[in-house]
Amino acid sequence: MTYHADEKGYYGQFGGAYIPEMLYPNTEELRQNYLQIMEEPSFVNEFQSLLRDYVGRPTPLYFANRLSDKYQTKIYLKREDLCHTGAHKVNNTIGQILMAKRLGKRRIIAETGAGQHGVATATVCALMGIECVVYMGEIDIARQAPNVARMKMLGAEVRPALSGSRTLKDATNEAIRDWINNPVDTHYIIGSVVGPHPYPDMVARFQAVISEEIQAQLIEKEGTPNPDYLVACVGGGSNAAGTYYHYLDNEDVGIIAVEAAGKGIHSGDSAATSALGKVGIIHGSKTLLMQTQDGQITEPYSISAGLDYPGVGPMHANLYTSGRGEFISITDDEAMTAGLLLSQLEGIIPAIETSHAFAILDYKKFQPDDIVVINLSGRGDKDLQTYIDYFKL
Ligand SMILES: Cc1ncc(COP(=O)(O)O)c(C=O)c1O
Q1: Is 311 in the pocket of ligand 1 (CB under 6 A)?
Q2: What's the CA angle centered on 189, arms 184 and 193, to 5 degrees?
Q3: Which CATH class is domain 22-51+89-202?
Q4: What is the pTM of this model?
Q5: Ligand 1, closest atom to CA 117?
Q6: 220 C-alpha to center of ligand 1: Å?
């Protein structure tokens, strides 16, 4: 029994590659090469030295004293907010740009919601001198303006997605369309553990540096590699996949995944995919997704652009249906309150996506000697205006 992908990219019944024929050569080239390339010593060396010297890894595992005091348990924060560009997304984009170069690609496309993945992609393209086009929903362009400016400053072209809810799902549709039209010289850097095989597995492997570091850091601090619980927010699921990766098959370690309930799970304005989702296919992957009776995708909603997605990666769909993971949905209001609390108790302003993970502390009672690791997936600079408007600061 494993919670990792099999060689066809299935996690239980979820995953695989459900793609139009015109996309087949692109994903097939990647599928045939990704594992071999990731194992080449020159690839491993380049990836690890960029993570160390450019991204600033390892990120600290910080014991949150005042937060632990308040909730009467031992809370550690994995500080992905301290990565260069301010979130975990760059772990994946460094890996994928090195992959694209080895596959001889000269142009990069990406989708983005919160803009963190867009910035991380624009950053590595600048680093390598490669052309970069980022698709972003029109709504997200408005609510994540600082990140749009950063992408442009880094030399990327930001193309608005104008269809559907004009958010992450629609940006992903546009990126896939571009890739179909540019199959030879373009690599699509997907920003989460979503999409057709091999993306979910490849992105999870690049993000697995998070759990690898947690293991070593917990040995140093607590004398054991294992926490009692791991907590992460889930949009597509990449920071969560990276946090869980080395613990997936170790059932002594509890897994808690936190989704966005928006204005309430049953309000009609939500992105609580596991609670509301049914089996279906989105962006090339069989997974849980929010849909109508006739299988039309339901428009998602969350105050946080990075969680505003109607599907979830296949790894997480399997963690949910198998019961290996506990899934909790958090509303906009609960997340915003938790973000303010973290700012004032620990001096760390989190991204609104990340704030969702902290809000579970008011729901889930931990024991005083439990070790709880919360992945602090990103910093809140991009969300300052939303916090200011919400709290009338
Ligand atoms: C800081 C932060 N955390 C979490 C997410 C959600 O993405 P994922 O579920 O792939 O980690 C995003 C997405 O943009 C993000 O910017």
Answers
A1: no
A2: 130
A3: alpha beta
A4: 0.98
A5: 14
A6: 28
Give Cα separations from 191 to 228, 272, 344 (angstroms): 28, 19, 30
Strand segments, DSSP code E, in the chain are: 10-11, 14-15, 61-63, 74-78, 107-112, 131-137, 157-161, 186-189, 229-233, 254-262, 278-282, 285-289, 325-331, 371-375
User: Can you read off the two tokens belonging to residue 216?
Assistant: 């070593």
- For the chain, the distance separating the N- and C-terminal CA atoms, rounded to the nearest angstrom, is 50
Residue 89 is a catalytic residue: yes
Interval 174-203: pLDDT, tens? 999 999 999 899 999 999 999 999 999 999
Categorize the per-residue pLDDT at 143 as very low, low, confident or very high, splitting at 50, 70 and 90: confident
Residue with tokens 């989704």: 259
- Whether 263 sits among the annotated catalytic residues: the reply is no
Cα-Cα-Cα-Cα dihedral of 117, 120, 121, 127, to 10°? 180
pLDDT in tens, 234-272: 999 999 999 999 999 999 999 999 999 999 999 999 999
Q: Other C-beta atoms within 10 Å of 132: how many?
A: 24
Domain boundaries, the chain: 22-51+89-202, 57-86+208-391
Residue 358, beta-bridge partner list: none
Does 22-51+89-202 match 57-86+208-391 in CATH topology?
A: yes
- Does the structural domain 57-86+208-391 have CATH classification 3.40.710.10? no
Placement of tokens 């990103």 in the chain: 378
Question: Rounded to whole angstroms, how far apart are CA atoms 69 and 54?
Answer: 35
d(CA 238, CA 85): 16
Angle 178-184-188 from CA coordinates, rounded to 5°: 45
Ligand 1 proximity of 354 Cβ (cutoff 6 Å): yes
